[in-house]
């Protein structure tokens, strides 16, 4: 009787402990810990005035500054449609402010030929870089680029030298090492799933459930990322976006 009671008591303790852990912190999904949910959007809404960008849920864009106020982002068919206007002097930036250090950013996306979608992370308080740029994963139909922007092309010293045409060959080579390019082959005009993860100094990309690649670089480990930018050079469609993360 004593032995049976001990086993039963042990079972109760273990079971209770497992329940408490799943309720209080990250849970396991396969080998990847799932981080706490910080933000999500299914874009299942419409704008009151379809001629204007009224995205709601805390989203902002650069259309007023970069596209002379012309509409570049639209809520349509329960998704977010992003298209650069012909007068725009810069790619489209669709912005959501969320604070995290490590993150799992997930969404569905659709690209046509020549399109791209950047998952750009920024810290607007970081003054050593242009426009807060920290790191980015940019997806095209034929490749994925993962870039450490903080210590690479968006570092103010590097950027200013490039604009002045004064980068040395050695400096160009050093900046080139801050970018990793991974070939992919994605079908155009169909939905894909995307998962971008940042953990410490590593940024990784998964598309349609398959690991595409990862890149380690010191700038990625920047302590505070406070802004997600969906960065689009031509056009892209996004849906079912979520941000999970920890500080």
Give me the Rg, rounded.
Answer: 21 Å
The level-1 CATH class of the largest domain: Mainly Beta
User: What's the architecture of the largest domain, going by CATH?
Assistant: Sandwich
Q: How many domain regions? A: 2
Helix content: 10-25%
What CATH calls the topology of the largest domain is Jelly Rolls
**What is the H level of CATH, i.e. the homologous superfamily of the largest domain?**
Exo-inulinase, domain 1
Mean pLDDT: 90
Envelope shape: globular
Strand content: 35-45%
SSE sequence, one letter per element: HEEEEHEEEEEEEHHEEEEEE
- Tally of alpha and pi helices: 4
Verbal overview:
It is globular, with a radius of gyration of 21 Å. The model is unreliable at 1-29 (pLDDT under 50). The strands form 3 sheets. Strands 3, 5, 6, 8, 13, 14, 15 and 17 form an 8-stranded antiparallel beta sheet that branches. The chain folds into 2 domains: 1-34; 37-246, Jelly Rolls, CATH 2.60.120.560. The chain has helices spanning 2-24, 63-66, 156-163, 169-176, and strands at residues 27-29, 32-34, 37-41, 60-61, 73-76, 79-83, 92-100, 102-110, 117-122, 133-139, 143-148, 179-183, 192-199, 202-207, 210-216, 225-232, 235-246. The chain contains 4 helices and 17 strands.
């Amino acid at each position: 009787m004593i032995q049976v009671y001990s086993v039963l008591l042990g079972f109760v303790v273990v079971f209770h402990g497992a329940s408490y852990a799943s309720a209080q912190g990250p849970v396991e999904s396969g080998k990847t810990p799932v981080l706490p949910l910080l933000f999500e959007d299914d874009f299942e809404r419409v704008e009151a005035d379809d001629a204007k960008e009224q995205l709601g849920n805390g989203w902002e864009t650069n259309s007023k500054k970069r596209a002379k106020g012309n509409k570049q982002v639209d809520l349509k068919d329960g998704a977010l449609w992003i298209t650069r206007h012909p007068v725009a002097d810069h790619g489209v930036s669709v912005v959501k402010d969320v604070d995290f250090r490590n993150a799992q950013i997930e969404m569905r996306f659709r690209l046509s030929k020549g399109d791209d979608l950047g998952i750009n992370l920024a810290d607007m308080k970081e003054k050593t870089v242009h426009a807060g740029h920290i790191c980015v994963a940019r997806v095209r139909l034929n490749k994925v680029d993962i870039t450490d922007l903080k210590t690479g092309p968006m570092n103010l010293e590097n950027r200013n030298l490039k604009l002045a045409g004064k980068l040395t060959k050695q400096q160009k080579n050093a900046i080139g090492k801050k970018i990793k390019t991974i070939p992919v082959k994605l079908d155009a005009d169909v939905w894909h799933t995307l998962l971008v993860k940042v953990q410490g100094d590593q940024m990784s990309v998964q598309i349609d459930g398959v690991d595409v690649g990862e890149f380690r670089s010191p700038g990625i480990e920047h302590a505070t990322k406070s802004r997600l930018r969906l960065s689009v050079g031509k056009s892209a469609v996004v849906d079912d976006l979520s941000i999970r993360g920890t500080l």
